[in-house]
Specification:
Length: 121
């Protein structure tokens, strides 16, 4: 099953219903018959988030995000914010390794999500 990578800083202070809606699908093939073909990652890739995210690789779905000396920084300034980017490609098979620093602060969840268009993880 193809999965897309989501990088997010999610806040646990938001209501459960809001948190459940953090990820989404552009076209769920369980609900539609005419979903586009999934663009696949066709080789190994190493992505360095210390410089501006390439729009051919990442789509920012919720901000804010900036780049610091240690890489991409997802900032939560107020309740309900969930800065998120998603890959423009799908991983049909293989493995994923991530180096990430957990967010400081109470009630903030730092996460990487691998999810298909049917929203299963």
């Amino acid at each position: 099953m193809a999965t897309r990578m989501f990088l997010a800083a999610l806040t646990a202070l938001a209501a459960v219903q809001q948190a459940a809606g953090q990820t989404f699908t552009d076209c769920n093939p369980m609900e539609k018959d005419d979903c586009p073909v999934n663009p696949a990652l066709g080789s190994s890739v190493s992505l360095d988030m210390s410089e501006k995210a390439n729009p051919k690789v990442w789509n920012m779905t919720a901000g804010p995000m900036k780049y610091g000396q240690n890489g991409a920084e997802f900032t939560i300034r107020e309740r309900g914010q969930s800065p998120t980017i998603k890959s423009q490609f799908y991983i049909m098979w293989g493995s994923v390794s991530v180096m990430m620093q957990a967010a400081k602060g109470q009630g903030i969840i730092s996460s990487i999500v691998l999810q298909s268009e049917t929203l299963d993880g």
